[in-house]
Amino acid sequence: MRRVHQSGDRGQTLPMYVVVVGGLLFLAFVYFAFAQAAVARNGGQSAADAAALAAAQDVRDELTQGFFDDIANPETLADWLDAKGFEGSGEGAAAQLAASNRSDLSGIQFAWVQGDPAFTANIETQYTVGKSLLPGTEGTHARAHATAVIEPLCAIAPDADLAKLVVIDCRGSGVWELDPKDIADVDPGALPKAKDLFSVHLAEGQ
Fold it and tell me: What is the pLDDT of residue 16?
């Protein structure tokens, strides 16, 4: 005997198939929307990191220049090496780096982190998350912040006669002996660089 399939079975299966496929497609679009948001957040965080580091590096350059300009002044020399006495905020450099990462700098905040100067950059991306099933994403910009710290690496040798010879001991690059009377005639390649005097890095746990 041969069994004859009824058309009603097929009629019941088709709507279920459509519902299942529709549900899977909806979930796929939702996951895609979250992926879009994650990409925007990651891009914003990268821009904030770059902006904060740029601000700190700009101030580090000011500290380095101040150290060499003031090398014949024993009273203030240690302050420069301790990352004190700077006036800049690095905002211009931070804004430039943010723009190169398709973001706008909202501002720079200064603070001391464990005794070291630190700069927090706040940014907003110029691009949005984009259109998705989630309402409002087409006009949503990612926001992020990051903090960069300037860490002094050098200290003046305790027995140095700064009027005759400036001796600094730097973590990582060793001991430098600088004659304040002849500093202008020294080959720049023989002088410590900004990275020898100060380390710039993102704050831990930000």
Answer: 62
